[in-house]
Design a protein that fits this description.
globular; two-stranded antiparallel sheet; 13 strands; alpha/beta; 14% strand; single chain; 464 residues
Length: 464
């Protein structure tokens, strides 16, 4: 039998339910993997070994007693340390919140527990999740298992590294500016930023008062090594919850014909590594071979939409910057200053204009998606940058964000956007995005699965 840490979540759940192996054996295998590799990678910042083993024993007893099991019964998961999990701290990666233990779980954690999943660890993130590289002033940096000299991405970089190396079978992260999809691309795993509201987004630390940009653009979501596991994770997490008044019970888009897909291999607004453009076109050819209709086309006003993301996030960061400086490291705060530089401080007129522009862009993109089911693009237009590069000189934070510009329409407009590996360049994974109209989440995953079958990157790996 292959080492259980290498099994996918769907197969682990099936094997546990059938008695092929026990939940305790599965948890022990993953704890062994954590013990072996996490000291060097620093992906998991709090290992929950004893409660995880207790949870596994409870699952095994339930199976022995013939109880009904959830779809993830016995499957080890990890939880990013800015998601509330009662009994553990929601640190946001900063020393000031090292002991900030929430009173209750986030809804997505409760849904994972109800499905039978077993939390095995909390994962690392950059200070306040505000960087594309994962380096916490509380816990230190997380390494990319493919090449330790390059970023694992951020802000859900701990999750991505843990999954890519078999320390976890499924993870929970979130995404305001690609924070699910950025590290997925850097570490060779799969994820989806769901349609805004499909997965309830609730946070209480440091506050339950949510800035406007978070209300509009932030989403929790599942991370895993393959699309089938992401699909199962989305099924478990989706649906209205009263603690998030903007959450919905969605009716997802379906089609009974081949998908029509636009390919934007060289997105405007910055340079594109030609090798990444080539891999994106390879993904387009894979979709065409799978029966899709594929043509090169770009959505309207891409560059304006990227600038609108900067404007929305800068509005809130400018209001919060004095408080952020009190808790973030100097390096992390300097990155925030980079985003704010040359951008006006927030005022009512700025917010009003940004929201009107957002509505106009949403109409234009909805018209584009009346002609195409999905947009295929790179996740990043450059390879994972060298560790520390993003803060070496003034302006680098903004430059790295522009390398991730293809993720931003999903956030600004609340669209579903799945990232899936499409190959390796210089030994580093490269992801592509499938972005669609609102509630086309499963179409995004359908197409991502087609790319995965043709071009997917094998994980988990031993660190290199």
């Amino acid at each position: 039998m292959t080492d259980l840490w290498a099994w996918d979540a769907v197969d682990l759940a099936r094997g546990i339910a059938s008695g092929t192996f026990s939940a305790r054996e599965v948890v022990e295998a993953h704890l062994g993997r954590i013990s072996r590799f996490n000291p060097s990678l620093n992906a998991i910042v709090a290992t929950l070994g004893e409660p995880a083993l207790d949870g596994a024993d409870a699952v095994d007893r339930a199976i022995a007693n013939g109880a009904q099991l959830g779809p993830l019964a016995g499957v080890p998961i990890t939880i990013k340390e800015n998601i509330d999990y009662a009994g553990t701290a929601t640190t946001q990666g900063v020393p000031a919140l090292a002991d900030a233990v929430p009173a209750q779980n986030a809804p997505i954690v409760d849904r994972m527990l109800a499905a039978g999943a077993i939390p095995i660890g909390r994962t690392n993130l950059p200070d306040m999740a505000l960087r594309l590289h994962t380096d916490s002033s509380l816990h230190g940096p997380t390494l990319n298992p493919w090449n330790a000299d390059h970023t694992p991405g951020g802000s859900s970089g701990g999750e991505a590294t843990a999954l890519a190396t078999g320390m976890s079978a499924m993870g929970l992260g979130n995404d305001l500016g690609g924070s699910l999809r950025n590290p997925a691309s850097c570490c060779g795993i799969a994820t989806i930023k769901p349609t805004q509201g499909v997965v309830p987004f609730v946070a209480t630390v440091p506050s339950d008062q949510m800035p406007i940009s978070f209300q509009l653009m932030a989403s929790d979501g599942p991370m895993a090594r393959n699309v089938a596991d992401v699909r199962l994770g989305l099924k478990v997490l989706a649906g209205h919850h009263p603690r998030d008044p903007n959450s919905v019970n969605a009716q997802f888009t379906t089609v009974d014909r081949p998908l029509k897909i636009a390919v934007m291999a060289e997105p405007p607004g910055g340079t594109v590594d030609p090798r990444i453009a080539d891999l994106t076109r390879d993904a387009g050819r894979a979709l065409e071979a799978a029966g899709c209709t594929v043509e090169e086309a770009s959505p309207p006003d891409m560059e304006d939409l990227v600038e609108l993301w900067f404007r929305l996030i800068a509005n809130d960061l400018s209001l919060a910057f004095a408080d952020l400086q009190q808790v973030m490291s100097e390096d992390a705060a300097r990155g925030v200053e980079d985003i704010l530089r040359d951008r006006a401080a927030a005022d009512a007129a700025s917010y009003a204009e940004a929201l009107m522009l957002r509505h106009s862009a949403a109409r234009a993109w909805a018209a584009f998606f009346s002609d195409y089911d999905l947009l295929l693009s790179p996740t990043w237009t450059a390879l994972p940058f060298r560790t520390g590069w993003d803060l070496e000189t003034s302006g680098r934070m903004t430059e790295t964000l522009r390398q991730a510009r293809c993720v931003m329409p999903g956030n600004v407009l609340g669209l579903p956007s799945a990232s899936v590996p499409a190959g390796l360049v210089n030994g580093l994974p490269v992801g592509v995005l499938l972005t669609g109209s609102r509630f086309s989440d499963h179409l995004c995953l359908d197409a991502a699965e087609m790319v995965e079958r043709a071009l997917g990157v094998a994980t988990p790996i031993d660190p290199r």
